Every structure is written in structure tokens, then in C-alpha cells.
UniProtKB/TrEMBL annotation:
Species this protein is from: Buttiauxella warmboldiae
CDD domains linked: HTH_XRE
Record Pfam families: HTH_3 (PF01381)
GO molecular function ontology, one term from the record: DNA binding
Taxonomic classification: Bacteria, Pseudomonadati, Pseudomonadota, Gammaproteobacteria, Enterobacterales
Record keywords, A-Z: DNA-binding, Transcription, Transcription regulation
Name the record gives this protein: Helix-turn-helix domain-containing protein
Domain HTH cro/C1-type, chain residue ranges per copy: 39-92
InterPro entries, per the entry: Cro/C1-type_HTH, HTH-type_reg/antitoxin, Lambda_DNA-bd_dom_sf, NadS-like
Length: 98
């Protein structure tokens, strides 16, 4: 690795540590956040048990429970599916019959 790239990486790491310690604030344009779907609210809105919801979306009951308890955060395909369900709740009817 050349020195310039290494120094840029090291600067980035040092900046991250300083932000984590509260020593500096990142520029607002560099801060990104994404809302995580409220799985429990969604499931109860659909009137489904955890096991029913899990089966409909192709996940385990334990995983749905972990999302609801905020022990785990949905990611990947599951997160995309949950976002679609937020936008169009009627999709759950297609998933229940699949």
C-alpha cells in the first residue's frame, strides 16, 4: 500500500475515534441514518402472530422476535421486504398465500 493511501486511511480512523469519543462533530452532510421498520407494530397491524408473520416473510419466529426486541436489526433482503410492507401493507396478503 502506498504511503498516501495509508495516511488517508489512518486519518479516517483517527477521525472516527474522535467522533466516537465526542471530541469532534462530523459535518451534517456526512451523517446518514436510516429508519428501521417497527416490526412489532407492522405485525400487530396485520393481526398476525409472530409465527404467522415469520412464515409469511420466510424468516424464523426467533428472528422476528429478535427484531421486535431490538436485539437484532433487519438487513439485506429482509430489510427491503419490510420496507416494501411499510409502503404497501397489502403485499402481506400475497405473502400469506405463497
Amino acid at each position: 500500500m502506498d504511503d498516501k493511501l495509508f495516511n488517508e486511511l489512518l486519518d479516517g480512523v483517527n477521525e472516527m475515534v474522535a467522533i466516537e469519543k465526542g471530541e469532534i462533530q462530523p459535518h451534517p452532510d456526512r451523517v446518514h441514518s436510516h429508519d428501521i421498520p417497527d416490526v412489532k407494530a407492522m405485525r400487530t397491524e396485520f393481526g398476525m402472530k409472530q409465527s404467522e408473520f415469520a412464515a409469511a416473510i420466510g424468516a424464523s419466529t426467533g428472528l422476528v422476535q429478535s427484531w421486535e426486541l431490538k436485539r437484532r436489526i433487519p438487513s439485506g433482503v429482509a430489510l427491503k421486504l419490510l420496507r416494501l410492507l411499510e409502503q404497501d401493507p397489502q403485499i402481506i396478503n400475497c405473502l400469506k398465500t405463497a
